[in-house]
Design a protein that fits this description.
This is Protein kinase domain-containing protein. By secondary structure, the chain is an alpha+beta fold. It is built from 13 helices and 9 strands. Helix 6 runs antiparallel to helix 9 and helix 10 packs across helix 13. It is globular. 40% of the residues are buried. The structure holds adenosine-5'-triphosphate.
Amino acid sequence: MFAYLSQFFRYCGSSSSFAAGHTAVTKFEFQELAVATKNFAPESLLGEGEYGSTFEGCLKSSEQVVAVKQVNKEMIIGVYRSTFLKIHIRSLLHHPNIVDMTGYCIDGNQMYFVHDFMPLGSLTGYLHDKKPLDWNTRMKIAAGAAKGIKYLHDESVIHGNIKPSNILLCEGYHPKLSDILGFKERIPEPDECNQARWQLMIIRQSYRHAPEFYFNLKLTQSFDIYSFGLVLLELISGCMADIKPSLIEWVKCKLVGGEEFTAVADPLLKGHYPEQGLYQTLSLAAECLQIKDVTRPRIGSVVNVLSNLASEIYDPNAIQIDRAGTLTIGKIEKERLTEQWQHIRCFSH
Ligand SMILES: Nc1ncnc2c1ncn2[C@@H]1O[C@H](COP(=O)(O)OP(=O)(O)OP(=O)(O)O)[C@@H](O)[C@H]1O
């Protein structure tokens, strides 16, 4: 992938298109994006995040509906050392479970990333304030998001920012990952300026970071696995990861404290979920949330488990029988789940 880098750095004209691999990324003029978003009007605002604000827009030239994310350039440079590196990495990533980047714009201290517009918005809305998703849709989203992460990891890219607001949904609740920070594996150099920025990120979102990042800023693919484990918990419980004391502690408390594992299921599912599926998802989440990064599963096995779960379509009217032919989860399996969760700890502060 990085063979294209020198080619990219040679690109510096103001014409509108740069070909990277098999696609083109457009370099927009600020004026085009201002027109598209009605001057970044409040009614165009889709949401605000850790790294900037996102606006809905319609490009005059193509009539394409897009999402324009405005980010402070300092933020990009602080993380990547180069705005071009960020654009370049992002422009090469294409997969059915990744939101396509249409283009970018640099204007003074601001950068704008233009992405395909996802009509159903982000997973956050469906988990926490809109109409609840049924079990099958939740599993479809989990499996699709995991496939997006697998693609990134196969390309040696770390997403770095996996959370429900970065899992966007298009028609049919097909999930696509957005806001890919696109890191290579590394431990950021602890120069003063960088250290301060990273620490700011840690403080803002510590509950989503894997323990090794919290302690020594180590960033590997396992970092994504940990964050994804948290998303799995949010999907099945319908709770936010940052509830107090924390979603991890809440789930652990129920499972280790002697309650039935079904106590963590989202009440909005109204009992319409397969016990076996819930059990397996909780077990997978525990594996993803392991304290030691090396003991977390690779994304390939996460995809396998979730693809199986997504393919077992739940019918609320049918009697649920698992693959072993049993109706419910047995005592030994429940003890195994409790044992797994006993070792999970939350590192947020
Ligand atoms: N391509 C898109 N299509 C449709 N809606 C989008 C798109 N990108 C972002 N949004 C909406 O805008 C909201 C804010 O996104 P934004 O990326 O600015 O912040 P965030 O994801 O909450 O946080 P962060 O900056 O840490 O990634 C999202 O929750 C989503 O609802």
